[in-house]
Write a structure and sequence with these properties.
Blueprint lengths: L8 H17 L6 E8 L2 E5 L8 E4 L5 E7 L4 E5 L11 E8 L1 E3 L8 E2 L17 E3 L16 E2 L4 H6 L2 E2 L5 E4 L5 H10 L6 E8 L3 H13 L6 E6 L5 H19 L4 E7 L1 H14 L13 H9 L3 E2 L3 E3 L6 E3 L7 H6 L15 E2 L3 E9 L8 H9 L2 E5 L1 H5 L12 E2 L8 H7 L2 H15 L7 H16 L10 H12 L11 H15 L2 H9 L4 H24 L7
Length: 557
């Protein structure tokens, strides 16, 4: 007989397989199997019967695996720990539990990995509630139209591509164009709102994630934020699992009638991790070597973002039982007696507003090409996209949003009436300006009307610039955009526009604070408020011109 040390791996696997088969036929325990081979974060296990898809398996050294390939004679498992700790012949046990994540208020302010283990050194997470990371997205009956604004704090985004609670808005662009910055600022802008935020970092360096967490803590939003981190050094299965874990955490808050935001940074790395896992599991590759179900990978994730129908909140489990929102079903809504989650009596409960889960997925492009495989998949799944252009970014136009390519399919339905009234013509003006500016570069002599259009576009572009970490409340955005669309900047030099806007807001805060307060309360820019705003602008213009003149700045008449 050949020496064991000289045996080939396939011979070892054959011996193990025959031994386990004999044990099984003799009535062996089918919840225990043996590792046939391991490597690159993948393990093949033989001997376990009746295993479920996405079931957690327990390997030696506390390594957890997930059963992804249920083949005729073995299981293909992805490992969520170091595969160096596992060797052929090791015993594997079923847990009987589908891949799940801890959820609830105990996660707020915490940094966790893709399976819910704390990474912030603040001890274990005390919660009794768990949710499966994978879930079938609710159907149409359990949804209602997206109509409630979700404000990012960016003037150009909230005015031109408004996002609603329950919407999926893709953020797309090349590397280093401000995609993550936009998401971070959107989270910072929820400081005073009722939105809980989940930031999912996929494949990022530890230092980058630490900086983002530090920013959240410094700006006072970490106490209502959960960071799910699949770091650059984590195995590919954690990259794959992290977005689903973040989505499950957000769904818990949505089903309690609350509002949540989940940001996926970014799904390009997520798709690459799934491609790696699929190829190692010997699934046949398709276009660009991605597996054939790559579209389903992201669609089943993003379809879980929604605005839930109104329903009744259970006093026992705290979750909402949504019911059809139509008037014809109002009696059915009032008559609902049993909680859909725990079966407790909810017959005496009042009808509550449905919650929402808003998704901001990020995808990275190469050389601005949005027509490649993964970006086009995500564009077709989401409700619009914000395209950040590298050329604009390098011209110091930030956020570097391309107005022509960016769109929101929810549109003005997700804007307050005050913003809708001032932002109506803004997108058209900026799009026309970009076309005229490209034409003017040829040095053609321009007529007076075109020159006025270019001058207006230059000032609007300058007005919409915004620094990082300074999200702006929507009532102040309305005031700033009003300056541009009502031609109050026509005699202000382009280089002075930003200073004019900043000092105008400071003037409003100190001298006329009632104007933004009224807009925030009524959500409208009525005639009385507009008249007061015009008076405030006129008063400020006099002082600004005097100050600018004293400082030697150029002011055009």
């Amino acid at each position: 007989m050949a020496d064991e040390t000289s045996m080939r791996p396939e011979e070892v696997s054959s011996i193990i397989r025959r031994a386990l088969q004999a044990e099984t036929q003799a009535g062996g325990f089918a919840a225990v199997g043996t590792v046939l081979e391991v490597g690159d974060g993948i393990a093949r296990v033989y001997g376990i019967r009746q295993c479920q898809a996405m079931e957690l398996l327990k390997f030696p050294h506390d390594v957890i695996g997930i059963a992804m390939n249920l083949e005729e004679d073995n299981l293909g498992c992805v490992l969520l720990g170091k595969d160096e700790l596992i060797k052929e012949g090791d015993q594997v046990e079923r847990t009987g539990r589908i891949a799940s994540i801890p959820v609830g208020d105990a996660l707020l302010g915490r940094v966790i990995d893709a399976v819910g283990r704390p990474l912030d050194g603040r001890g274990p997470i005390e919660t009794e509630r768990y949710r499966p990371v994978e879930r079938v997205a609710p159907g149409i009956v359990k949804r209602q139209p997206v109509k409630e604004p979700f404000h990012t704090g960016y003037k150009i985004v909230d005015a031109l591509t408004p996002i609603g609670r329950g919407q999926r808005e893709l953020i797309i662009g090349d590397r280093q164009t401000g995609k993550s910055a936009l998401v971070v600022d959107a989270i910072l802008n929820q400081r005073a709102s009722d939105v809980v935020c989940i930031y999912v970092a996929i494949g990022q360096k530890n230092a980058s994630i630490a900086r983002i967490v530090e920013t959240f803590e410094r700006e006072g939003v970490m106490n209502k934020t959960v960071v799910v981190a699949a770091t650059a050094t984590a195995p590919a299965p954690q990259w794959y699992l992290a977005p689903y874990a973040g989505c499950a955490i957000g769904e818990e808050f949505m089903e309690r009638g609350g509002h949540a935001l989940v940001a996926f940074d970014d799904l390009s790395k997520h798709a690459e991790a799934y491609r790696q896992i699929s190829l190692l599991l010997r699934r046949p590759p398709g276009r660009e070597a991605y597996p054939g179900d790559i579209f389903y990978l992201h669609s089943r994730l993003l379809e879980r973002a929604m605005k839930s129908s109104d329903g009744k909140i259970c006093p026992s489990c705290g979750l909402l039982t949504p019911l059809p929102p139509t008037e014809e079903n109002l009696e059915e809504l009032k008559a609902a007696k049993v909680c859909a989650h725990c079966g407790e009596d909810i017959s005496g409960r009042e009808i509550a507003d449905g919650g929402s889960l808003t998704a901001l997925p990020i995808v990275e492009t190469k050389a601005g090409d949005i027509s490649t495989y993964i970006p086009t998949n995500l564009i077709s799944i989401t409700d619009g996209q914000i395209f950040l252009e590298a050329d604009l970014f390098h011209k110091m136009i930030r956020p570097a949003m391309n107005v022509g390519t960016s769109v929101s399919r929810v549109g003005s339905a997700a804007q307050i009436p005050a913003m809708k009234s001032v932002a109506g013509e803004l997108k058209l003006s900026l799009a026309q300006y970009r076309e005229m500016a490209a034409f003017a570069e040829f040095g053609t002599e321009l007529d007076e009307a075109t020159q006025r259009q270019l001058a207006r576009g230059e000032r609007l572009t300058e007005l919409l610039k915004q620094d990082q970490y300074v999200p702006m409340p929507v009532e102040y955005q309305v005031l700033i955009i009003y300056l541009g669309v009502q031609e109050h900047l026509r005699d202000i030099p382009v280089e002075e526009v930003q200073r004019f806007g900043e000092e105008f807001l400071a003037f409003i805060r100190s001298e006329r604070p009632g104007i933004p307060v009224r807009i925030a309360e009524t959500r409208r820019l009525d005639e009385e408020t507009q008249q007061k705003l015009e008076e405030a602008i006129e008063e400020f213009r006099k002082s600004f011109v005097a100050t600018a003149g004293a400082d030697g700045a150029r002011v055009e008449g």
